[in-house]
Amino acid sequence: MLIDSHAHLISKFYKENLEEEILKTREKEVFVNNIGFNLESSKEVVAIAKKNKNFFASVGIHPYDVSDSEKETIVELKKLAQDKKAIAIGEIGLDFYRQITDFNLQREKFEEQIYLAKELNIPFIVHSRKSFDDSLDIIKKIGYFNGIFHSFDYGINEAKKVLGLGMYISFSGMLTFKRRADIVEVALYAPLQNILFETDSPFLSPVPMRGKTNHSYFVEYVYKFFSEIKKIKIFELEETIRKNFNKIFSVNIIEKEV
Ligand SMILES: [Zn+2]
């Protein structure tokens, strides 16, 4: 059983093909944590999760979208996050790679949303790009470590710090890219009980699909790549990821009867 712990299967990206995309994901029996990045997409992922058994939802405001969020946004997010199928606050974080929004506003909204996750006692999903120290400082200041660094984009030293706090690392298709030996090193180091896999669909398609639109079922290539480098059997890896996902998100995906 495959689990994509981070995807954006929403109409903005899949347009008129969204229904088909969801159907195909269901047929392939892939479980998906579908992730919002602003209020509108957060509402959509919750609605999709309510209708589809193998879909969960995470709600949050992405650092690129913080300038559109208003005072009431956090109240709305809180309501959405209390839905049965909502399992985390995300994606939230800091992105200093592209100055799309004000950095201080990003810090403020990141902090506010981690506090929301803490209040609701659910995990938060971190987008952190070229902002590692700042991201970690905020998390440490709040002292709530029930979180995941998604599509991990840092090296071994940063990974050690994240894992040392008991947080999770999620690997995307970037793991399979040439010239990302730094992420391979992280994968070789990371304890199996602290990892998840994702696609970040429609972005970051893994090799051999690189450059094409990504799909949740392409998470298969991340599993395969990881099983080869870490020398672990694919069925054991699937079992490990299922347990990890159940644990961090307090859900109960059961193994399919054979
Ligand atoms: Zn994402």
Task: Describe the fold and architecture.
- The chain is of the alpha/beta class.
- The chain has one domain: Alpha-Beta Barrel (TIM Barrel), CATH 3.20.20.140.
- Strand 7, helix 8 and strand 8 form a beta-alpha-beta unit.
- Helix 3 runs parallel beside helix 4 and helix 5 runs parallel beside helix 6.
- The model has no long low-confidence stretch (mean pLDDT 96).
- The site of zinc ion has 5 residues, from loops.
Helices and strands in order:
Elements (H helix, E strand, L loop, with lengths): L2 E5 L3 H4 L3 H10 L3 E5 L3 H13 L3 E5 L13 H9 L4 E10 L7 H18 L3 E6 L2 H11 L4 E3 L6 H9 L3 E4 L9 H9 L5 E3 L21 H12 L3 H16 L9
Parallel strand pairs: 1-2, 2-3, 3-4, 4-5, 5-6, 6-7, 7-8
Helix pairs in contact: 3-4, 5-6
This protein binds zinc ion (ZN).
What would CATH call the homologous superfamily? Metal-dependent hydrolases
Derived structural class:
alpha/beta
Q: What distance separates the N and C termini?
A: 12 Å
Specify the helix fraction band: 40-55%
Poorly predicted tracts of residues: none
Q: What fraction of residues sit in β-strands?
A: 15-25%
The dominant shape is globular
The figure for the number of domains is 1
- CA gyration radius, whole angstroms: 17 Å
